[in-house]
Amino acid sequence: MIKFQNTQTNNYLPLQPEFEILTDYYLEHKERNKHNQSTILFYQFKMKKDMINVITVIPDGCIDILFCCNEKAPFANVCGSVLQTKTINLHADNEYFGVRFMPNQETHKMNYSMKEIIDQEVPLLDMISIDFMIVERLISERDFFGKINLFNETIRKFIFDTDSSSKVIEYALHNIYLNRGNITMIQLAKEIGYSTRYLRKQFEEHVGISPKLFSKIVRFQSSISMLLKVNHCTLKDVIMENGYYDQAHLINDFKNFGYMTPNKFTEKFSARTTYSTL
Fold it and tell me: Residue 272 — very low, low, confident or very high, per pLDDT cuts 50/70/90?
């Protein structure tokens, strides 16, 4: 069994392209935990006035807390990662504030397990025991960084306990991110020094899905990121960087997650990145 050492930070951070592109505006801000490892992404966007209230979300392996900042009809939901692309209903001309966090940000204070919220939306107040007035304060705050500060001061402590993170999962995730998801469970188990059965059990508890499926999501997200953010990126580049056997293998991955083909994705989004990172 290996002796775990502090892993270097990784740059993997999943995207939800339609949040970023098919909205009036999009802002984001990234923070790392006190060990400078896991990332929390804060983001804010406003739906367009002429939107049909529908936006597409894709698998990302993360958990989001989404706040609707409409003071007349506010809500705050915890959203588990979807396993296939699906549409969600949001209100036109409304502002939304979100918090996206990676697996292994310990959430033992939540009333649901990670597995129970996969592909589900659960009201925040059902997940953690806080006063709705805290949520109302955050929703009423107009400034993006004001919302972030309020979340960190009032809600964060009810969700995260970074002192109790699983070193097994931490090291496994680091290896998956490092390899862009292109790693087998046998390779991963050998690298960590545990059996594939134990690794699968740990992933179910801390991530909610199997390490094999999580790795596929990471590779899918890595491909999306390259197509969207790397200038002059070709499908050949994506195939080589992410360990796909050929173009058919890449297309099959996109289809398995219920998404459009890589070519259609590039046509739809490649020239439309308009968000701001703060």
Answer: low
